[in-house]
Write a structure and sequence with these properties.
The complex is a heterodimer of chains A (415) and B (162).
Chain A (H helix, E strand, L loop, with lengths): L7 H6 L15 E5 L11 E7 L2 E8 L7 H5 L8 H5 L6 H16 L5 H29 L3 H22 L8 E2 L2 E2 L7 H23 L3 H7 L7 H6 L5 H5 L6 H4 L20 H29 L16 H6 L1 H12 L7 E9 L2 E9 L7 E5 L1 H6 L2 H5 L7 H8 L3 H5 L1
Chain B lengths: L1 H14 L4 E5 L6 E4 L4 H10 L7 E9 L7 E9 L4 E9 L5 E3 L8 H12 L2 E3 L36
Parallel strand pairs in B: 2-5, 6-7
Antiparallel strand pairs in B: 1-2, 3-4, 4-5
């Protein structure tokens, strides 16, 4: 007993010399994360091979929210697929509505009215803001910052309130119709919308104050989840992930649809393609979307009230007063409800810029009132695929912000 | 767009007359129907030729034309960042031997999308390194997006093996 040292400093000297060389990480361990994990918003399972805290390899298993979107669409009418598209992405349901309806319109050869196009852009941009707010807000939450998450959610509530006023529902809005929209905006909408935009700008400023230069946040995001521009292109990555690498691909500019050509907005791009760039790109896109919404409101007010649905017998729903009093309109109403339009045989692909990237619909019609094939090109799935490249060699903790900024939405990824 | 589309078709037809069965540009969408044996050659040509440079595989899917022979049709949508144009490549696959070469060597993006097509349509991809089901579970029997798979059919969910 007497020989044992009393002081800690002496004990240190007795440490065997070979202790340094003992390898503590000789075996890799396998960690299952998910399918339902509190630090990932999205139902997905990661099987991670770890060397200590470093990710050696990762297998991503998707499909937990598969609910046979395509099979269901192939058994209803062309109209009946619209509510299913709502459920693809709970953040920006309108953009999925829009992609599908515009693909059907392409097959039908329909040109929608100008007022309808401005309304569609307005609703779509509100949905894009809600989507980016969720992405940035939830990323903060999962990095243990509660306050910015609340700023994000409060602004998302404001956009969802606007969507409720416009469409009648907050999340599954089902607003876009083949050849038009459900209805025109209510007369008090523009004023309410301008008020909310001012509030959202204020909240984004608060968000910016606590997050953008916050040391902890910047350290967690900078240089994590890196991917090169070339890898993004080889993997078909689109949306804010690709733009964060410095590629200005935005279908609203590249293949302008609706009235985007008449609208003044910029496409922000990043420089290195890490999570911090993705965050900056998303925040700037929200500011651009607010600009677009304001231009839509100004233009719609200048145009004055007018029809929003195209007057084409294949997709037109007759006025209710006539349905109750006239035979022809009653028959047409009956046919519209039970059967809907018959789409000419053929195939068509139409893609829009959704909040996550290129959201495309490839439709095949055999000339009947039932779609033969409804394929959704899911940006979430395709953007998630190169995630192993982003996290291999990184720390386990870096997986969380990387997955957040990929913004995988289970409903759209698994369909 | 229509002119641009026909220009793509003209160049592809001139370079690969044996591989291309049919073309069309309906709705302004340039479409090539190619022999399945020569699919990879056509894809490499479309990716590497100056002036075409389809560097992105934007989508990959399959359509089941039940009752026709060959029964299946693979559909590839390509996009070129440099030239901002698109092309659709299609290739028929028979019911008896549903196989086609994997596009992973040309675009790694094809990996998960081909797994999805195997999962839902039962098409096998030659040279795919990891052809597991993507959306459904391994024990699932059949391929549900085939037109002869009844929509009402139910299968028991089998839990994970421990």
């Amino acid at each position: 007993m007497d020989e044992s040292p009393h002081l800690l400093t002496e004990r240190r000297r007795e440490t065997p010399a070979d202790d340094q060389s003992r390898d503590l990480h000789s075996e890799h361990q396998i960690l299952n994360m998910g399918p339902s994990h509190p630090a990932s918003h999205g139902t997905v399972k990661f099987v991670i091979e770890l060397d200590g805290e470093t990710i050696v390899d990762i297998d991503i298993q998707v499909g937990y929210l598969h609910r046979a979107f395509e099979k269901e669409c192939e058994s209803g009418t062309w109209y009946q697929a619209i509510p299913y598209t709502d459920r693809l992405n709970y953040n920006s349901a309108i953009l999925a509505n829009l992609g599908y309806c515009m693909a059907v319109e392409k097959l039908l050869g329909l040109e929608t009215l100008e007022r309808c196009q401005w309304l569609r852009v307005l609703a779509g941009e509100l949905a894009r803001i809600a989507d980016h707010l969720t992405r940035c807000g939830a990323a903060c939450l999962e990095l243990a910052a509660m306050t910015p998450f609340l700023f994000g959610i409060e602004s998302r509530e404001l956009t969802w309130d606007l969507l409720e006023m416009l469409c009648g529902a907050r999340v599954t809005s089902n607003f876009i119709r083949i050849g038009g929209v459900k209805h025109d905006m209510p007369p008090e909408f523009p004023n309410r919308c301008r008020g909310s935009i001012a509030k959202i700008r204020g909240l984004l400023r608060d968000f910016d104050d606590v997050v953008t230069e916050n040391r902890i946040f910047v350290d967690r995001l900078r240089e994590t989840g890196l991917i090169s521009k070339e890898d993004c292109i080889r993997y078909g990555v689109t949306g804010p992930l690709l733009r964060a690498c410095g590629v200005p691909l935005d279908l609203r500019k590249q293949e302008p649809y609706l009235v985007y050509e008449q609208i003044d907005f910029d496409v922000p791009i990043g420089t290195v393609g890490d999570n911090y760039d993705r965050y900056l790109v998303c925040v700037e896109e929200m500011h651009q979307s607010l600009r677009i919404v304001e231009q839509c409101l100004d233009h719609l007010e200048k145009m004055g009230p007018g029809p929003v649905n195209v007057d084409d017998p294949r997709v037109r729903w007759p006025a209710k007063g006539r349905v109750f009093n006239r035979m022809e309109e009653l028959i047409q109403q009956f046919k519209s409800v039970t059967e809907g339009p018959r789409v000419p045989a053929g195939e068509g692909y139409f893609a829009i810029e959704s909040a996550n990237g290129e959201l495309g619909f490839y439709l095949v019609s055999d000339g009947s009132a039932v779609p033969y094939k409804v394929r959704c090109r899911p940006p979430s799935l395709i953007n998630l695929q190169p995630m192993p490249l982003m996290v291999r060699g990184a720390l386990l903790a870096d997986l969380i912000p990387t997955f957040d900024f990929i913004n995988m939405i289970g409903g759209e990824c698994d369909r | 767009m229509e002119d641009h589309g026909s220009e793509i078709l003209r160049r592809a037809l001139a370079a690969l007359p044996d591989a291309i069965v049919d073309t069309h540009a309906r709705l302004g969408e340039a479409t090539l129907l190619v022999r399945s044996e020569q699919l990879i050659g056509v894809m490499r040509f479309l990716r590497d030729t100056a002036g075409l440079e389809f560097d992105m595989l934007s989508d990959l899917t399959c359509v089941d034309y039940l009752g026709e022979t060959p029964r299946f049709e693979m559909v590839y949508h390509l996009y070129s960042l440099a030239h901002n144009h698109r092309v659709r490549v299609k290739s028929r696959v028979s019911e008896e031997d549903p196989r086609i070469d994997s596009c992973i060597p040309v675009w790694p993006a094809a990996n998960w999308l081909e797994r999805e097509v195997w999962d839902l349509y039962g098409i096998r991809f030659n040279g795919h390194p990891d052809l597991r089901r993507l959306l459904l579970y391994e024990e699932f029997e059949g391929h549900p997006l085939r037109k002869d798979y009844p929509k009402e059919k139910r299968q028991p969910l089998i839990g994970p093996r421990n």
